[in-house]
What we know:
- The protein is mostly helical.
- The protein has helices at residues 2-15, 19-48, 54-84, 86-123, 137-150, and strands at residues 124-128, 159-163.
- The model is unreliable at 152-160 (pLDDT under 50).
Amino acid sequence: MCFLFYALRLGLISIVPSPWWLLLTEFLLQGPTYALTYATIVAYANYIAPVGMSATMQGLAAGMDDGFGYALGSFFGGVLYKYVGGKATYQIFTAFALICSVSHVIIHKRFLKEEDEDDIDDKYVEYEVPQKKTDDAEAAAEETKDKEEDGEDEESGVMLRHRAQ
């Protein structure tokens, strides 16, 4: 979806008749492109990170996006802009985003989908939190009050999922 939003955004920028249309395009599509892409990058970095390395992996992913990605995009965008012009540059990047989007869907459906489903059970372990047995209603009410103050879940028998070590 991220590449599709970028393709739509860049395609619209390439055909806007005046700068006022550009403001409307950017206002409507900046969030779905940048925010959705960045959230996806961070979520995937967290998903593939080994236990205890989530912040490091997210930092590396952000550095690649905000550092290397911007540098590479600026370099190729500048070269294309110089030789083929602004409109054609945006259209080339639109085509590239569409190709990336279709390629991602094909690769994910063909090769990665089954692997993802198998990894879910291997990556997490489930356990049940033991329930305390209290006969005294007053003690149970006090325990519930303490849990609510601590921000714990009201139900003590909830299944929790944690990353396997």
